[in-house]
Design goal:
396 residues; alpha/beta; Metallo-beta-lactamase, Chain A; Rossmann fold; 22 strands; 2 domains; 7-stranded mixed sheet; 12 helices
């Protein structure tokens, strides 16, 4: 058990080896943590558990620190298995312990584990006395990022247990935000937001403002993944409000795949034209077949304009580009511009397909596209630079 504040302890698991999450959907280059918290007041409360593969280890370590029968309540803020996975192992030992969760979480927990435990449903504003004048106050967090999500706040200690909100997939031996590399921390925080919470940005802003309206003093924000925010904890709340507002930086990103280097040559020279038009803009290029998809999606999130490039194959585009555009559509980015480019040899449908998919994903097309037959020569290379120059001008 690691002290968090007063009678609050971290009893989670650091997963140094984790490299993929949500199946194979999310890359975790720096591992992750599954944060579980134990509150030991007159009542003993366990807030969340850990991912299922670590269930037995979790229960054994918990038993080493406390008699399991002393746990009065369990709070499950979100039913996903990385948070609730140790429940079956734990409930075998203390089957009658009440579980406090949202009404939707009852559905997800029963759906995952097919058990009829003693569920006590709570909603925003409900309170649970834990003794010594302290209470847990529950706040529904629907669609951040599941319908069953909630947070809870411990009065007296002024700690917000925020579940998936404000977290990061970041394994570290250090527990708190002021103890870790700040560049790594915020890189993982923005990646987490971009890849998981972006579709729910309108709800994020609404929910944060709803929490702020409660005027609860917050000394610590304790999420379910990554570090705990104790140094200026509301800095991550301010970042979420910024990221929720159709976020973009002064960045243009070029995404492409290529078969025989022609489309890559176009990308290089389009970038050259953009830089000539706007020396201050940040330009990044990524081959979608060779770059981690979640890192790409994070860069798209940061960009004001994205260019999509692919040669034509089988009257469509290369698979890596199709996959990344499908992922972009699901994330529902707002307020971003786009243009397409690519080489072809015979039929040439690729650029049109890219335009179609970019518009479907909500991007504003600022060019009809650069469509080049065969390999670019010196003349076409200059056309690509001119195309980039126009993109740079229209992106200002």
């Amino acid at each position: 058990m690691i002290p968090v504040k007063n009678n609050i302890f971290w009893v989670g698991k650091t997963d140094w080896e984790l490299r993929r999450f949500h199946g194979d959907e999310y890359s975790t280059h720096r591992g992750s943590t599954y944060n579980s918290y134990l509150i030991k007041e007159e009542k003993t409360v366990l807030v969340d558990t850990v991912w299922k593969p670590f269930a037995r280890e979790f229960v054994d370590r918990l038993r080493a620190g406390i008699n399991l029968d002393q746990i009065d309540f369990i709070v499950i803020n979100h039913g996903e298995i990385d948070h609730s996975g140790a429940l079956p192992e734990l409930m075998e030992q203390i089957p009658d312990t009440p579980i406090y969760c949202s009404e939707n979480a009852v559905q997800s927990l029963k759906g995952h584990y097919h058990q009829d435990w003693d569920f006590r449903t709570v909603k925003t504003g409900d309170r649970l006395e834990v003794g010594n004048g302290k209470e847990l106050v529950f706040v529904e967090m629907k669609m951040l990022h599941w319908p069953d999500s909630q947070a809870c706040y411990l009065t007296g200690d002024e700690v917000l247990f925020s579940n998936d909100a404000f977290g990061q997939h970041y394994a570290t031996e250090r527990l708190f935000n002021d103890q870790v590399d700040q560049c790594e921390l915020f890189q993982e925080a923005i990646k987490y937001y971009a890849n998981i919470l972006t579709p729910f940005s309108p709800l994020v802003e609404k929910k944060i403002r709803e929490i702020l309206a409660l005027e609860l003093p917050i000394d610590i924000i304790a999420p379910s993944h990554g570090v705990i925010w104790r140094d200026n904890p509301t800095q991550i709340v301010e970042k979420y409000l910024e990221w929720a507002g159709n976020y973009q930086e002064n960045q243009i990103t070029l995404l492409y795949d290529t078969m025989w280097e022609g489309t890559r040559i176009l990308a290089d020279n389009i970038a050259r034209g953009i830089k000539k038009e706007d020396p201050e803009v940040e330009i990044k290029l990524f081959n979608t077949a060779k770059t981690d998809k979640n890192d790409i999606l994070t860069e798209v999130f940061k960009s004001k304009t994205v260019l999509f490039g692919s040669p034509t194959i089988n009257r469509t585009i290369l698979m890596s580009m199709a996959a990344i555009l499908d992922g972009i559509e699901g994330l529902k980015f707002k307020g971003k511009k786009a243009a397409a480019f690519g080489c072809y040899g015979w039929s040439g449908e690729g650029v049109g397909k890219l335009n179609e998919m970019a518009m479907k994903a909500g991007f504003e097309l600022i060019e009809n596209g650069l469509k080049v037959k065969w390999m670019p020569d010196a003349r076409v290379i200059e056309e690509a630079a001119a195309f980039g120059k126009r993109v740079g001008e229209k992106s200002k």
